[in-house]
């Protein structure tokens, strides 16, 4: 069953469905070695990867397995990254949260703001019971974002990834619907 990709708004962001016009922004984001430092794949070198990324997002929504949202800064409309709710399982009422932001957007609270918006939609609209997230154990900024929005670190997947010959561990975080607390004033 298809899943309708919502448009969500926060004080400083607009989260919206991707369009074909986003390909250049997606490629710029994923071709940055700094942005991709803690990902499970190296930085992109081919523009065609952006087209596949956009196609995969549409396929996720069409198949009903998740949604991928572009993040635009409300003040100027600039594309600053994306947030996703993937591996949606209506039977188990669970899904996984992910996000990726441009280096210039780091440290401004945008990831936290976007995560709050997607979690509100996940718990209030989709009626989820559990949302999971994972991050490289060296990515302390991402771990802080997850903790700020209420996730609990549940475990470590040891030596789960090998990217460019570098082995890394992954932290697994979970947030239950009964623990979810929307931000004050939201």
Structure explained in plain terms:
- The protein has 186 residues and is of the alpha+beta class.
- It has helices at residues 23-30, 48-63, 110-125, 140-148; strands spanning 8-9, 13-17, 67-73, 79-89, 94-101, 130-136, 152-163, 166-176.
- It is built from 4 helices and 8 strands.
- It has an 8-stranded mixed beta sheet with strand order 1-2-3-4-5-6-8-7, sandwiched between helices.
- The chain is globular and about 40 Å long.
Rg result: 16 Å
Largest sheet: 8 strands, mixed
What percentage of the residues does DSSP assign to strands (E)?
Answer: 25-35%
Query: Overall 3D geometry?
Result: globular
So how many helices? 4
List the helices and strands and how they pair.
Blueprint: E1 8-9, E2 13-17, H1 23-30, H2 48-63, E3 67-73, E4 79-89, E5 94-101, H3 110-125, E6 130-136, H4 140-148, E7 152-163, E8 166-176
Parallel strand pairs: 5-6
Antiparallel strand pairs: 1-2, 2-3, 3-4, 4-5, 6-8, 7-8
Helix pairs in contact: 1-2
């Amino acid at each position: 069953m298809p899943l309708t990709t919502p448009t969500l708004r926060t004080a400083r962001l607009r989260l919206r469905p991707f369009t074909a016009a986003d390909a250049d922004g997606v490629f710029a984001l994923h071709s940055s070695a700094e942005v991709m430092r803690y990902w499970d794949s190296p930085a992109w070198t081919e523009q065609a990867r952006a087209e596949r990324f956009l196609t995969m997002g549409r396929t996720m929504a069409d198949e009903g397995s998740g949604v991928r949202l572009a993040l635009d800064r409300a003040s100027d409309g600039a594309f600053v990254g994306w947030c996703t709710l993937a591996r949606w399982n209506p039977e188990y009422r669970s899904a996984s949260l992910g996000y990726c932001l441009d280096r210039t957007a780091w440290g401004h609270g945008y990831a936290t703001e976007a995560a709050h918006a997607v979690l509100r939609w996940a718990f209030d609209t989709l009626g989820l019971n559990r949302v999971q997230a994972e991050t490289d154990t060296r990515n302390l900024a991402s771990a802080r974002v997850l903790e700020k929005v209420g996730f609990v670190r549940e475990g470590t997947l040891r030596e789960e990834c090998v990217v460019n010959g570098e082995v890394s561990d992954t932290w697994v975080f979970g947030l239950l619907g009964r623990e979810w607390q929307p931000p004050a004033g939201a």
